[in-house]
Amino acid sequence: MVSNRHRLVADAALVVLAEQGSRGLTHRAVDAAAGLPPGSASYYYRSRAALLAACVQRLIDQDHDQLDALTPMATATGPAALSEALAGLLHHWLTTDRRRHLARYELTMESVRRPELATELHAAGSALRQRIAAVLAGLGAPDPARQARLLVACIDGILFDNIAGANASSPMSAADLHAAARDLIGAALPGPVDGPPTAVPHRRAGSAPTAMS
User: 90, 121, 125, 204 - which has most CB atoms within 10 Å?
Assistant: First the structure.
């Protein structure tokens, strides 16, 4: 059974991964990040491999929690609501939740050399795609499984590009994310995606674009 203390240690391990990288993931560093006495992390997760496995499972749980919150809104009111919800979720992932995705990238690189992590990550990715395909099917997508794979691939690309890729220093604005979400949902579902227009902040000529706040 996973206790609150197990989750606390796993969350702290994700913070260490995001801030210090995979090489910085030690029991001592996790103790410090969690604000726990020395030896606490090793009590709950005896080895570094166990810590990594706990991080993967914590990410999986959080992904499903976020999808649980998104799905009812999307299926209740149609493609426009799904587009708006996706834009909001992208904004959340690129701002408040940015650190969690940095940890995910570290775990993904670890999984290249650790087949047990790769198995868990790939199975979780497939499960999420199946859930998204079910949402798209409910909204009339003609080939929901294929379109879910493409939609997730595009979302992953947007996240990586704006968190660790070429545009990390100048991430997409909220208005740009709304436009991207409308394009993605419009490509996956039949009919127009009619959402309220998103105001684009005025910029003086030659000024730099404003990053999301």
Answer: 90
